[in-house]
Specification:
683 residues, mainly alpha, 58% helix, 0% strand, Family with sequence similarity 160 member B1
């Protein structure tokens, strides 16, 4: 009977739109009055066709009327609470598959009709109810339709931010939990993703009250962090750090994956991708969120995930556990891009202290203390991984990292004596008889190729290295840059050098890298309130005892043992120190790159540490037979120019000498590049 009526209707003349609309709606209600078989799927009925016809009529009506004017068909839908009735039918899923049809109808209605519908109580109330209905069963047959519906609602809120107020009623607090979480909660394993900006971007939540309601009156923060913790707990207790570092980029579950293939790749691959995908979702959500909401969400991640879940893992004593958790933390640091979440991550790792560091206060923040100590761990793997973690931290656009780790210890310049250094005999040697490997910086070929557009436009922050002069020092004690460069180049004695015997390993190879890296650092640091010149001595508290800080202490200690440490450890130590040397801060530059500063008694600088290493080296080289040919052979093997053959004695020391020579060349290049940057724009 139902299908017969529909067939006869198709043969009838066209009716006015309202009559046509009412006919299709009554045809649907008529089905529920007459049918006795409520188990037949909805696709065996004409309900989907009638719903589609109703949508077409509403769309046509809006197209034919003045903009913003409500037509009789839409009035009929609102007055007769058709959406409310459809919600009831969808909730009952009668006939089977009706829920899917209702979700699709709501989605198309909200998406196709241009006039604002959500302000109508007979629209936003059933929409709220349908939102609640979503996600009751995860991975349900209607999951795709539920996600499309939620995306459409979010898009409407983004289009008109003030519509959010219709979802902020106290009795409907769970609406937000469902909108934001119920379905995006499966995003790491679902075939359909959802943009985080669709709900919490600045436009959808312009009012502080709305952002406050979202973060304080819903379970959004708890739901996000609980899921993050859940994914983390699912990870294996032990994982190869290389697998953690190199696993493919996260994609919010948009890939097609094979569990067997993942298991063959490495145990826990799918769990790791799920964790990193959810972390990335949280990060992007916070990045796009209104500022107040972003701060609350980021703080929740810190308290409910980092402190509650990760900190015990990082503080454990099991070397396997430490290595795995540090590798995961390293990956997290690399991945976080939102300012709010990065800040909370840094506060979790380092604390919020910015005042001067003291030897007795280094344990004030236990996790910071433990991580820095791990840079000098008995396990070389843990040392390397933790040093790499700090290297990645130093490259993050967060001023607090550098202030907390290094700069607060150098603020008063009390590493120097308050007097000008006297002329020294070695300086006369540097001026009147330069060693054979000294370089003429003004004729360096690298910078003859640099156009003004490619040069760094730094201001006069590098005032501790003035333009070249015929004198060794300026009246204020500042040293010429070419003497600084040659001081580093000449630190390693000739008999301990091997790079000049291998093509393509000269000092100039470091210049381009230093130029690029310094330009990148200047771009990151330019918005920070950093000193453009050293703090005047008369304003410094030079009487306070100098403490280099826990971080620099461990780095200097490891640098002092460069001749007795594994090659990979030395590479990582020098990499961190070179990153610090590149930073455009006057005090840090002075402390790390000026060999001629007059150190206060008991203080050390990077240059003085290297001088002590060279002194030790000169004593030890004479005890090794055929030192120079062995050194050259080790260098060629490291470069892959010689095959591995018979073992060489003292290989750790020989590798340390090679790293030392290369590091001195790198520091020389950095010093020159920073000086050139400060003078290239001088009048």
């Amino acid at each position: 009977m139902f299908s017969k009526i529909y067939w006869l209707y198709n043969l009838a003349p066209s009716l006015p739109l309202q009559e046509d609309f009412v006919y299709h709606w009554k045809a649907i209600t008529h089905y529920y009055i007459e049918t006795s078989d409520d188990k037949a799927p909805v696709t065996d009925t004409n309900i989907p066709s009638h719903l589609e016809q109703m949508l077409n009529i509403l769309t046509q009506e809006e197209r034919e009327r003045e903009s913003g004017e409500t037509g009789p068909c839409m009035e009929y839908l609102l007055h007769h609470k058709i959406l409310e009735t459809l919600y009831t039918l969808g909730k009952a899923d009668c006939p089977p598959g009706m829920k899917q049809q209702v979700l699709s109808f709501y989605t198309k209605l909200l998406g196709r009709i241009r006039q604002p519908l959500l302000p109508h109580i007979n629209v936003h109330r059933p929409v709220q109810k349908l939102v609640r209905l979503c996600g009751e069963v995860l991975a349900a047959p209607t999951e795709n339709e539920e996600i499309q519906f939620l995306c459409t609602v979010c898009a409407k809120l983004k289009q008109d931010p003030y519509l959010v107020n219709f979802f902020l009623e106290v009795s409907d607090r769970d609406i937000w939990d469902l909108l934001v979480y119920r379905h995006i909660g499966t995003v790491a394993i679902s075939p359909i993703g959802m943009s985080p900006c669709s709900l919490t971007q600045d436009r959808p939540l312009p009012e502080p009250a709305a952002a406050k309601c979202l973060t304080e009156n819903t379970e959004l923060s708890q739901l996000l962090t609980d899921r993050l913790a859940q994914f983390y707990r699912a990870l294996p207790q032990s994982m190869d750090p290389l697998d953690i570092e190199t696993v493919e980029s996260v994609n919010w579950g948009l890939d097609v994956y094979n569990l067997k293939e993942d298991a063959v790749a490495f145990a826990g691959k799918r769990a790791l991708i799920s964790f990193l995908s959810w972390l990335d979702y949280c990060d992007q959500l916070i990045k796009e969120a209104q500022k107040t909401a972003a701060a609350v969400l980021a703080r929740a991640v810190r308290e409910r995930f980092f402190v509650a879940i990760m900190e015990p893992q990082l503080m454990q004593t099991s070397e396997v556990g430490i290595l795995t958790s540090t590798a995961l933390l390293n990956r997290i640091i690399r991945q976080v891009t939102s300012e709010a979440l990065l800040q909370e991550t840094v506060y979790f790792l380092l604390g919020e202290e910015t005042g001067p560091e003291t030897p007795v206060g280094i344990t004030q923040h236990p996790l910071r203390h433990r991580l820095i100590e791990h840079c000098d761990h008995l396990s070389d793997e843990i040392s390397i991984m933790t040093l790499r973690l700090f290297e990645h931290l130093l490259q993050k656009p967060c001023q607090h990292i550098l202030q907390n780790l290094v700069l607060r210890c150098l603020e008063e310049r009390n590493y120097m004596e308050n007097k000008q250094p006297e002329e020294r005999e070695e300086r006369e040697h540097m001026e009147n008889g330069q060693p054979h490997d000294a370089v003429d910086l003004e004729e360096d070929p690298l910078f003859s190729d640099l156009s003004p557009d490619n040069r760094l436009s730094s201001p006069d922050w590098l005032s501790c290295s003035p333009p070249p002069s015929t004198e060794h020092t300026k009246p204020d004690g500042k040293t010429e840059v070419h003497k600084i460069v040659n001081s580093f180049l000449c630190l390693v004695p000739d008999e301990a050098k091997s790079s000049y015997q291998v093509e393509g390993t000269g000092y100039d190879t470091y210049l381009r890298d230093a130029h690029r890296q310094f330009r990148d650092y200047c771009g990151v640091c330019q918005r920070w309130d950093w000193r453009s010149s050293p703090k005047p001595f008369e304003k410094c508290n030079l009487d306070s005892p100098f403490f280099e800080g826990h971080f620099l202490k461990v780095l200097f200690d490891r640098m002092g043992r460069i001749l007795d440490q594994p090659y990979d450890v030395n590479l990582q130590v020098t990499s961190v120190l070179s990153k610090l040397s590149l930073l455009p801060h006057a005090h840090l530059h002075e402390y790390l790159l000026d060999p001629y500063i007059n150190l206060a008694p008991g203080c050390r600088s990077l240059f003085s540490v290297i001088v002590r290493v060279v002194g030790d080296l000169m004593l030890r080289t004479h005890r090794i037979p055929d030192f120079t040919p062995k050194l050259l052979l080790v260098r060629k093997r490291l470069l892959g120019l010689e095959p591995e053959g018979m073992s060489i004695d003292h290989v750790t020391l020989l590798e340390g000498v090679i790293v030392l020579e290369e590091f001195c060349k790198e520091l020389a290049a950095i010093a020159f590049v920073k000086f050139h940057a400060s003078t290239s724009t001088s009048p």
